[in-house]
Specification:
By secondary structure, this protein is of the alpha/beta class. It has one domain: Maf protein. 31% of the residues lie in helices and 25% in strands. Strands 1, 2, 3, 4, 5, 6 and 7 form a 7-stranded mixed beta sheet that branches. The protein is elongated, with a radius of gyration of 17 Å.
């Protein structure tokens, strides 16, 4: 099987093992460099959610640009969005409980902003993908057992569809890899359009 088309050298600006795994499984070759960007915790900002996710992805890419000026940098940021607001990764157990309590029994969107950046030429491409999740209600005992597991750590919306959090999901529409954290269909299209 032929290797997929990709920029080379490619840097993944992410500390997410799920993003690296999705890229690897698709046959891409890359170096992982965790971004030096502290994600904001304030979800009360009145901003367009897709633009917010795209901005975070771009700033993650920029945060490693000084060390990788001649490389193409891929970065992504995933958020969950409901009528209650924008939810990123929970800060701690109490925050995870708050987020899951708001998402349970409702429909929300998972938005991943994706940025490609070549610092030396200042070429950039920034897009996003949206998937929709319907979550079932979660009772208190089930919620506490899930919080005890620690599976909420490092996950937008405090759950991972690829882990035990999938038991909370009734249905979804759109890209599954987007919900996991990196919309591979979009990434492939972006690589195809990258000069």
């Amino acid at each position: 099987m032929a290797a997929p088309r990709q920029p080379s050298p490619l840097v993944l600006a992410s500390s997410s093992p799920r993003r690296a795994e999705l890229l690897r499984e698709s046959g891409y070759r890359f170096e992982v460099v965790p971004p030096g960007l502290q994600e904001p915790q304030d979800e009360t900002l009145h901003v367009d959610a897709a633009a917010y996710a795209e901005s975070l992805a771009y700033f993650k890419a920029r945060s490693v640009a000084g060390r990788h000026a001649a490389d193409t940098i891929l970065a992504a940021d995933t958020i969950s969005v409901s009528r209650e607001g924008i939810f990123g990764k929970p800060a701690d157990r109490d925050d995870a409980r708050r987020i899951l309590s708001r998402l349970a029994g409702s429909t929300h969107s998972v938005i991943t902003g994706v940025a490609l950046l070549h610092p030396e030429t200042d070429q950039r491409m920034i897009e996003h993908e949206v998937s929709v999740i319907r979550m079932r209600p979660i009772d208190d005992d089930e919620l506490e057992a899930y919080l005890d597991s620690g599976d909420w750590r490092g996950k937008a919306g405090a759950y991972g569809i690829q882990d035990h959090g999938d038991r909370f999901v009734e249905s979804y529409e759109g890209s599954l890899s987007n919900i996991v954290g990196l919309p591979m269909e979009l990434v492939c299209r972006m690589f195809d359009g990258w000069k």
